[in-house]
Amino acid sequence: MPRRYAFRWTEDAVHPDTMRAFLAEFISTAIFVFAAEGSFLSLGKIYKDTTTAGGLVILALASALSLAVAVSVSLNISGGHLNPAVTLGALVGGRISVFRAFVYWIAQFLGAIFAAVLLRICTGGMRPVGFALAAGVGRGHAVILEIVLTFGLVYTVYATAIDPKRGGTGTIAPVMIGFIVGANTLVGGPFDGAAMNPARAFGPALVGWRWLHHWVFWVGPFVGGALAALVYEFLVIPAETPHPHHQPLTPEDY
């Protein structure tokens, strides 16, 4: 798919695939957040101290497996973003229109909120944990950490799911995306929980009403996602030259 920057009303606004993509992003994000956030609550129910090495591995595994499944079930419908930072990267790289990006963002945030509400109901009123900075971790350090972690995530998404020349790699994209999230959780978990996803952070924060340093989990992922898209889109992917039989896009196409 060629790069395409559409800042005005596009065919996406009335295309039925847009609503199907909205539903896919909503359901898949809810599946991911329910399983990933639910693992926090489950671990806290079993152990009083969840900051052990074993607990960290469990949380990383839950995030990796749930994300891999959630991406798999939506990849062929919406692209399997499930993350506003991934959607921003696709928008910065010209892979989706502005309208569709906003549709995805709405679906992702609503899906995360829905999953957090379901968790609170299913667990008898337990407050979602969400993300928070560990003791001794500065806000600036946490922002940099989120930038680096999200850069790795979005770069992986680009290489395995968005790159038009990905070839057979696209079949294992969900697994690779899950792996990088699991690995990043092992790295960043002890410091700030390793959100890498504003929707994943927002849903539990809203339902659990935990807002301390919440902005970190928006700024870091959005900056990291945009940087990864710029690097991969303009430095890694070869320049796309139009086929001689293809007509260039006209203003009417947007």
Short description:
With 254 residues, the protein is mostly helical. The protein has eight helices and no strands. α5 packs across α8.
Overview features:
254 residues; mainly alpha; Glycerol uptake facilitator protein; 8 helices; 0% strand
Characterize the structure shown:
The longest helix has 31 residues. The chain has a single domain, classed as Glycerol uptake facilitator protein (Up-down Bundle). α1 packs parallel to α4, α3 runs antiparallel to α4 and α5 packs antiparallel against α6. The chain is 66% helix and 0% strand. It has 8 helices and no strands. The radius of gyration is 18 Å and the shape is globular. The chain starts with 15 loop residues before the first helix and ends in an 18-residue tail after the last helix. The chain is mainly alpha-helical.
What gyration radius follows from the Cα positions, in whole Å?
A: 18 Å
Total DSSP helices = 8
**How much helicity do the residues have?**
55-70%
Q: Which geometry do the CA atoms define?
A: globular
Number of strands: 0
Query: Any idea how many domains?
Result: 1
CATH superfamily: Glycerol uptake facilitator protein
- Report the order of strands and helices: HHHHHHHH
CATH architecture: Up-down Bundle
Instruction: Name the average pLDDT.
Output: 88
